Fold this sequence. Notes:
Elements: H1 2-25, E1 32-40, E2 46-55, E3 58-63, E4 66-71, E5 79-81, E6 84-89, E7 94-100, E8 107-115, E9 118-120, H2 122-125, E10 130-140, H3 146-151, E11 153-161, E12 165-169, E13 174-178, E14 181-188, E15 194-202, E16 211-215, H4 223-226, H5 228-322, H6 327-428, E17 449-458, H7 480-489
Parallel strand pairs: 1-17
Antiparallel strand pairs: 1-2, 2-7, 3-6, 4-7, 5-6, 8-9, 8-10, 10-15, 11-14, 11-16, 12-15, 13-14, 16-17
Helix pairs in contact: 1-7, 5-6
Amino acid sequence: MDKKKRLFAGVLCLIMIFMATAPILAASDNAKEEVVYASLGSDGEVNSLSIVNIFSKGAKEDYGSYTKVKALNSEADVKMSADKITFTSDKDRFYYQGDMDDKTLPWLISVKYYIDGKEMSTKEIKGKSGEAEIKLSIKENPAMDKEFFEKYTLEVSTKLDTKKFKNISSDKASLANEGEMKLINFIVLPNTGLEASINADVEDFSFEGFSINCLDLKLNIDLESLGLEEKADDLKSASQKLKDASYKINKNTKPLANGARDIKASYDKLEGANRAYIEKSVEVFDGVAKLDAGLEAIDAKSDELKAASKSVEDGLEKIALLAQNDKNMAAAIAMIKESYKAFDAGLNEYVGGVSAAAKSSKMLNAGATAMSAKASELISANSSMTKGMASFTRNLSDYLVASDKITTGFTKLYEEIKSEENKVKDKFVKNDSASTYVKSFASEKNENVRSVQFVLKTEKIEEEVKEEVHEKKVDEKKNVFKKFTELFSK
């Protein structure tokens, strides 16, 4: 059954190649295509590598470091001299295979197997049961030309028998069903690698292996129909505006920073002046307090003065009554009495003035006290403001540094968008494959290469089945289909 499947796969592959390349090779007598076949071990190591080269009719020259060459669909004699291959084909589509001793691919492929968290070799894991994990790693091979890794898309596929594997999962794969088989597919885009796992519960572990197809994928997408070019222009325009705005902000913020520093210096001076004001206001407050105390003492004695004045006045009245019989004495007493009235009036005015002064002094004292408190609040607020201005100045300086970085970043973004626009066009704009050549994998001396495809297959893990060996005569003249399918049955 497996052999029939491999035969079918080989025939299908051949038909696809015929359909895909027939019009291409007809466009140029010197054109060729390459299909690189690699057989990998179950751990991903390369076991063998060969290239099928496809040409049109006529005398041809080709290059490649082969250990052996042979025609696949013709009796034509394929000659090899060092790395130069010559032949004359009588077929419209001529295939010859070259086996390579160098087993280096553009990708480093690794496959590891685990049961219940324990790593096992391919021999150990056969027939095991438990929680299975298959880890696949695909990385760039630094020993090879970067072009293949940077341009080629990889399709990685495998399948698991659902009679053996349950609860199948893989976070980076697309899963589908094909009868009792679970199909698992990964896509690896150009210039990227893959680190992926397949997890499942297994009974009697066996594995089909991975099939990996690598090709320079042409999506044939028209950018104009999708409006991508217009969007790219909008993105460039927006990034340019952001860059210009960032530059203006940066330019206008620098004077602000200078002004902030000047304001801080002024606040420092104001804080010093306020401190001097506080010191003077304390002296004034002390003087007002002393004045208030003196006026209160005088005001307290003024009542005694008024009482004494009243007593004097009453005494003069009595003396005046006694002196009525003595005209001279009465006249003198009357003069004293009038003079004392003037004195008493002055005394009353003085006492009233002292009382008013005492009241004013109390108001002045209260005002001085309030002024002293407000001055303390002022200097406290000014100190906080000075600290705030210092913090603002520091933050503004940090902002200027960040603004410079933002401006630089937007400039770089704009330049990268302009650069990426051409890369997007290279990947998505329609390509005329009939006029496009690619790099040869076989040899740098090959120039007219229309396409290069890689077909990689890892070895199966299965219990060895002994089969009876029947001798049979091998037809030396195999047709192209049989020779092609041999590549899949190795």
